[in-house]
UniProtKB/TrEMBL annotation, chain A:
GO CC, alphabetical: BLOC-3 complex; cytoplasmic vesicle; lysosomal membrane
Origin species: Poecilia reticulata (Guppy)
Chain ranges of the CCZ1/INTU/HSP4 first Longin domain: 13-118
Region (Disordered) residue spans: 217-239, 257-401
Signal peptide: none
Annotated protein name in UniProt: HPS4 biogenesis of lysosomal organelles complex 3 subunit 2
GO biological process: melanosome assembly; protein targeting; vesicle-mediated transport
Tree of life domain: Eukaryota
A molecular function GO annotation: small GTPase binding
TrEMBL record, chain B:
GO CC annotation terms, alphabetical: BLOC-3 complex
GO MF terms held by the record: guanyl-nucleotide exchange factor activity
Limits of the FUZ/MON1/HPS1 second Longin domain: 200-346
FUZ/MON1/HPS1 first Longin domain location: 2-152
One GO BP: vesicle-mediated transport
Domain FUZ/MON1/HPS1 third Longin: 497-650
Name the UniProt record assigns to this protein: HPS1 biogenesis of lysosomal organelles complex 3 subunit 1
A Pfam family matched in the record: Fuz_longin_2
PANTHER family in alphabetical order: BLOC-3 COMPLEX MEMBER HPS1 (PTHR12761:SF1), HERMANSKY-PUDLAK SYNDROME PROTEIN 1 (PTHR12761)
């Protein structure tokens, strides 16, 4: 979208990755160790100097303190540092960006790289510096392309303006995701529209990672076509290899739907397989991928091309689970396009149910004959997942309600569980000293290869994190296609119909509301170039945010200079900043109850209600 | 886990201080890389080896380092003052980055008070800070180390060192009585005595712990800046400490506890012995250390300390004017301090003027302005030349330093003024530098030589000092106990819900606040023990926070934090108490000098900045910090603040005297 801007060079000065293992001997030139340096046009001598000095001093300090350097400040630039094995990352930003934000940006950057490329060391063993430099550049530009200064300070997932969207559509998106999740190979997913989140089942950190891929393909299609309509004859379905950290995987595997009490789901999960077995005897055979009852129409015509593509890339670069073998059993590609799916008159729900039953059945019964097909570890999880997902589906009405309510930011019931989990995750990532969770892509625990399945319908995108063998498992793919396609089309049409809200005039106040659980930011700060009146607000927000971060017990603050007064308040789940434009500030600096600055809290409570921010 | 280091650009350690944990930690680090059986080298050499990569990297980068933070929250703060690199390290979380930066600036201030203009020459300062003679070095470092410890203790426990403003005892009648006594009796008698040996008492003040009871300056004395006064209180406290936590010990005992233990080790290190404290019973170690301390002659208690203080007197301005400081203990906790002008001090002003001239010339030459004639505000070099000639003639021509200055000046003249010379161009820059070094050398010769402490003839005689001590003792003997109690309970509060406040008059550098006593035995407004300690920590954190906001231009801050509500206000008034309009306060960089008055007078600069638009008005600047219970409604809190702001300073516009 037009919101994506090139990296803001004012804020980010330098980013580099230096590999100390390449510079061991006295004679080794420093530049041999430089894996990537931004800005790329920096003279090599300067690159050498910065990398050599910073890495050298970093090592010296780390030895003195028996702990890696985290922050390194120069007089005019502050660096977040990461040291791991022989790698040395440094992200240098201007002094105005809060230190905590610079650290988060760097971690995010490294995590992004690991998400799409796997272990850094291995990547550099397998690929050339140049190839990976392009990757770094790509992630850097994404990380630095926030629409406004506030996005540097408060790292956030960009969502649809929820005040402008019919909640039913959000419910619908959540339903689509749930339907997809019934396939045991699907971990979690999210629905994006025009680069913004409509609904997600993933924790915010992971959603942001997934969105990098999406927004990139989105901007690419935007550029190539020049219209908002991506080429309809392009590839609506694609996939890419990704890597999850064990903690991310664990989080996804213990998603809220798992927690539906098994008591009432137990009898229900018994029934459908029986019915299936009764109705379709053929499905008893172990090689059940080519079930005759499956409508041929659900096969996507693009299937062979992309499956060969992914399997090819995966094979060459990464050693994946042995599930690749199953792609050999892929059923015949269908000549019909996914859209035609509806022409067979089958109602989407029926289709869903049927595929669900089948998949459930498969996972229950395939292990006998299909040991070679299923990795032993994945087998168990898939089996379990299937059971739970099935139960989740049966109690769908309540479940959907919960998902929807989560989307509307009310933390109750199931959503509450999710919120707390997300918070826990976040709290961990925001502790620089321990820093383990946010950064475990660099920890010893190995990354788990997964795949990111992306289905695009015009500006709407369904992105699913799936087991790698999903891409070779045509049955599962069909199933997902079946369960989502009709609904995606419908959702896309509805969302497209919503007229974008004109960016309202700034009004007599500025505010920023950050939901730290869902990592969403609501603000009327435009970030337009030349937003001079906004600068004091952003500056104050930056200071207050750092202060909130440093002081756990701090609840609210008012800070005032001669011309500006900004109010900040935070709870466990949110941070809100508010500034009122006064004609003339009643203020002499001395304590005075009449002072307009002290009425900011009540003004904020009153004004922000209409933005859906409740400060009561 | 604390350490402070001054290093030259070549990584030579010019001074170091560290606590036991840090020393242990460093020695373990170093021990790892050492062969078994080889004794560890001197601690300063270990430091030098381990820190060398950092120090050398500092001079390689054009944009210098200001701090490092590690994942286990060790903080390193670095600052380059001229040719010396100062590094402070904390590994126990007790100090934050700004505390460490402040400490560096305070140490620099102390070095300036001790060495005056010698600090302007990197070369000479290096020699001064690290004397060749190891015993002399040990003595100097020990003294400077004890100053660092005393300052750290005060900053952690004393509110006046927290906000860096002098606290007065609030008892107007007694104060007035005392000032009158200092003026009419004490100073007059001292200055009319023949035993003063050419010295003239300029300032006299009485301290009760760190609080000021009375301060008198003679008529021809320049105003003592808050910065210098605070530095002198640190020195007086160092000599006669009154540690709140060691109330039961006599000050002498606590003093030796504090310092001797630490410095015994240092002396060993200085002599190349292996400090073995970790293997030795601490008590035995203490005794041993005390012995070592005795080996170095303790300074004669009647010998003054040379201190260099700023004066501005009519058109004379000199930031480092030599004074003698006499610190006389009246009773434990109560001290009389006398500051005298020494007979030859006029020389310091001349040296300072010439230093400035050569400095200007050097800058000019650097900018490539060529001859002085082309400059915007021309330096009259001919005038300087004749004055300099006269100045050199006036010096006593009998030592090496004098001969050197004469030689360099002759060389400078031949290069600058003669036809054969190169004239005023960049080639003259080294000679400018050389002249500055020589001038600093002369200054050092006159005011800093070691013979000073042995020179009994140029100081108030021991008898005179004793008489002064006796006079003040006699005057205050009836008040003694009252004063000691009063210093712990200076003022009381009568606002329900108000937990604590600090009010500071920045124009005069004075503060008032209820006491915060945190020991079990003493009770303050807040009660005693853990609660008071908790509040104390909150207040300390609040001051740090508000400084951070002030640094970024915010002069009002209110915070709801846990069960408390904090307020901070900074405002300006004119002399009649009229509240002046606020202005946008300059936004400073993160590594700018600390906000305070001791090491760097931020408020003085702020007042000058504000006064630019209020010409002719005597602008005052006030700060108020309050801590309320969080349940009190904000309106009431603000009302309290307003009442406090007016009540504390309004009645007589001078309630503290």
């Amino acid at each position: 979208m037009a919101e994506l801007k090139p990296p803001d060079t004012r804020r980010c000065r330098y980013f580099f990755l230096y590999d100390g293992s390449k510079v061991r001997g006295e004679g080794d030139p420093t530049r041999d160790g430089i894996c990537y340096f931004y800005p790329e046009e920096t003279p090599v001598d300067k690159q050498d100097l910065l990398c050599g000095q910073l890495a050298g001093v970093g090592r010296c300090v780390s030895e003195l303190s028996s702990s890696a350097v985290r922050i390194l400040r120069l007089r005019r630039c502050k660096f977040a540092i990461r040291m791991k094995d022989d790698f040395f990352w440094a992200l240098g930003c201007s002094m105005e960006v809060p230190t905590v934000s610079v650290c988060e940006l760097l971690d995010h950057l490294i995590n992004l790289f690991c998400f799409y490329n796997g272990s850094v060391r291995q990547s550099y063993q397998l690929n050339s510096k140049e190839t990976l430099a392009a990757e770094w550049a790509r992630y850097l530009s994404h990380v630095l392309s926030g629409p406004s200064e506030l996005h540097y300070i408060l790292q956030s997932v960009r969502t649809l303006d929820l005040t402008n969207v019919d909640p039913l559509l959000l419910l619908k998106a959540a339903l689509i995701l749930q339907a997809c999740q019934r396939c045991p190979l699907v971990l979690a997913g999210c629905v994006l529209f025009r680069g913004r989140v409509v609904s997600t089942q993933m924790p915010p950190q992971l959603t942001i990672k997934v969105m990098v891929h999406e927004s990139e393909t989105y901007t690419k299609t935007q550029r190539s076509s020049g219209t908002s309509k991506p080429p309809s004859d392009g590839e609506p379905v694609s996939s890419t290899a990704v890597f999850l950290t064990p903690s991310e995987l664990q989080y996804l595997q213990s998603a809220p739907v798992d927690k539906i009490s098994s008591s009432h789901s137990a009898p229900e999960k018994e029934a459908p397989p029986k019915k299936t077995r009764l109705s379709r005897t053929l499905s008893d055979t172990p090689s059940s991928e080519s079930t005759p009852s499956r409508p041929a129409s659900c096969q996507s015509p693009q299937k062979p091309s992309f499956s060969s593509r992914t399997s090819g890339s995966e094979d060459s670069v990464f050693s994946l689970a042995p599930s690749q073998g199953s792609s050999a059993d892929s059923p015949n590609p269908s000549p019909l396009s996914p859209i035609r799916h509806f022409s067979n008159g089958e109602n989407a729900d029926q289709a869903e149910e049927r595929t669900l039953d089948e998949s459930h059945y498969h996972s229950l019964h395939s292990d006998g004959g299909g040991v070679s097909q299923m990795p032993s570890e994945g087998d168990g999880s898939a089996f379990e997942g299937s059971l739970h997902l099935n139960s989740g589906a049966t109690s769908r009405t309540t479940d959907c309600g919960n998902v929807a309510s989560r989307d509307e930011k009310t933390a109750a019931g199931e959503g509450g569980v999710c919120c707390r989990k997300a918070k826990g995750h976040k709290a961990e990532t925001r502790q620089p000293p321990s820093g383990s969770c946010s950064f475990n892509s660099l920890e010893e625990s190995p990354l788990v290869p997964m795949a990111l399945y992306v289905h695009r319908v015009n500006s709407l995108v369904l992105a699913l994190l799936v087991e790698p063998r999903f891409m070779g498992d045509s049955a599962s793919m069909e199933e997902v296609n079946h369960s989502s396609l009709a609904s995606l089309n419908g959702l896309e049409a509805h969302l497209r119909a919503i007229s974008p809200v004109a960016p309202g005039a700034a009004g007599p106040y500025l505010f920023a509301h950050y939901d730290s659980v869902q990592s969403t930011l609501t603000t009327n700060v435009s970030g337009r170039p030349g937003g001079v009146p906004e600068h004091p607000f952003v500056r104050a927000t930056s200071l207050l945010h750092s202060h909130f971060f440093d002081t756990e017990t701090l609840q609210e603050a008012i800070i005032r200079s001669a011309g500006t007064a900004v109010y900040g308040t935070r709870s466990v789940a949110q941070e809100t900043y508010f500034q009122q434009h006064w004609g003339t500030m009643r203020n002499s600096g001395i304590p005075n109850q009449q002072d307009s600055a002290f009425s900011l809290p009540s003004k904020a409570r009153h004004r922000l209600l209409k933005h859906g921010v409740n400060l009561l | 886990m604390k350490c402070l280091l001054i290093a030259s650009e070549s990584a030579e350690v010019l001074f170091h201080w560290s606590d036991r944990e840090y020393r242990q930690n460093i020695q373990e680090k170093y021990g790892v890389s050492q062969e078994e059986g080889e004794g560890l080298p001197a601690f300063e050499d270990i430091l030098s080896t381990l820190f060398a990569p950092i120090i050398i990297s500092c001079s390689t980068l054009e944009d210098s380092y200001t701090s490092f933070t590690t994942e286990n929250n060790h903080i390193y703060v670095l600052h380059q003052f001229d040719e010396c690199l100062y590094i402070a390290v904390n590994g126990d979380g007790e100090e934050k980055e700004d505390d460490l930066r402040r400490k560096l600036y305070v140490v620099k201030k102390m070095v300036e008070v001790m060495f005056g203009m010698v600090t302007l020459s990197g070369n000479l300062l290096r020699k001064e800070l690290r004397p060749q003679d190891t015993e002399q070095r040990a003595r100097l470092w020990k003294y400077l180390q004890s100053l660092v410890e005393t300052y750290s203790l005060l900053r952690e426990n004393d509110q006046s060192f927290l906000v860096e403003a002098v606290e007065r005892l609030i008892h107007p009648q007694l104060c007035e009585l005392c000032i009158e006594f200092l003026e009419r009796r004490l100073v007059q008698q001292l200055n009319s005595s023949v035993e003063r040996a050419g010295e003239e008492v300029l300032h006299a003040f009485v301290l009760v712990h760190t609080k000021l009871l009375a301060f008198y300056s003679s008529r021809n004395a320049s105003i003592l800046t808050p910065s210098d006064l605070l530095a002198l209180i640190v020195m007086a406290q160092n000599m006669y400490p009154s540690n709140v936590d060691l109330d039961d010990m006599s000050p002498e005992v606590s003093n030796s506890c504090l310092t001797d233990f630490v410095f015994g080790l240092l002396e060993k290190a200085g002599r190349g012995e292996t400090p073995v404290f970790e293997f030795v019973d601490p008590e035995i170690q203490m005794a041993e250390d005390s012995l070592h301390t005795l080996e170095i002659n303790p300074p004669d208690p009647t010998s003054p300390r040379r201190v260099f203080l700023a004066i501005s007197h009519k058109d004379e301005m000199c930031p480092m004017m030599p004074h003698s400081m006499y610190c006389l203990s009246l009773w434990p906790g109560i001290t009389l301090v006398l500051l005298t002008k020494i007979s030859s001090s006029a020389l310091a002003i001349s040296v300072y003027k010439y230093l400035e001239d050569f400095d200007k010339l050097e800058k000019r030459l650097h900018e490539g302005h060529g001859g002085p004639a082309s400059a915007r505000s021309p330096l009259n070099m001919q005038d300087i030349r004749s004055k300099m000639d006269k100045f050199i003639k006036s010096l006593e021509p009998h030592d090496l330093q004098y001969a050197q200055l004469q030689n360099v000046w002759a060389e400078f003249k031949s290069r600058a003024f003669s036809r054969a010379g190169s004239g005023f161009n960049k080639d003259l820059i080294p000679w400018c530098k050389n002249m500055k070094t020589q001038l600093c050398g002369i200054y050092r010769q006159c005011f800093l030589t070691d013979s000073l402490s042995a020179d009994v003839t140029h100081r108030l005689s021991a008898g005179l000092q004793e008489r002064a001590q006796a006079m003040v003792r006699e005057k205050l003997v009836d008040w003694k106990d009252f004063l000691l109690v009063k210093s712990k309970r200076n003022i009381t509060m009568d606002f329900p819900g108000l937990v604590h406040f600090i009010c500071v008059d920045r124009a005069t550098g004075q503060m008032i606040a209820p006491s915060l006593n945190i020991t079990e035995r003493t009770t303050s407004e807040l009660g005693k023990g853990p609660v008071a300690n908790y509040i104390k920590n909150k207040v300390w954190a609040l001051v740090r926070t508000t400084r951070r906001y002030l640094q970024k231009g915010y002069s009002t801050v209110t915070l709801r934090d846990g069960d408390f509500y904090f307020c901070y206000f900074l405002w300006f008034e004119n002399e009649t108490g009229y509240k002046l309009q606020p202005v946008d306060i300059p936004v400073l960089a993160d590594d700018s000098p600390p906000i305070g008055m001791l090491a760097y007078d931020y408020y003085n600069r702020l007042l000058k900045y504000y006064s630019k638009n209020h010409k002719g008005e005597n602008v005052k600047c006030y700060e108020l910090l309050t801590v309320h219970l969080g349940v009190i409604p904000t309106e009431i809190i603000l009302q309290h603040c307003r009442q406090l702001a007016s009540k504390l300073w309004e009645p007589s516009r001078n309630p503290l005297l």
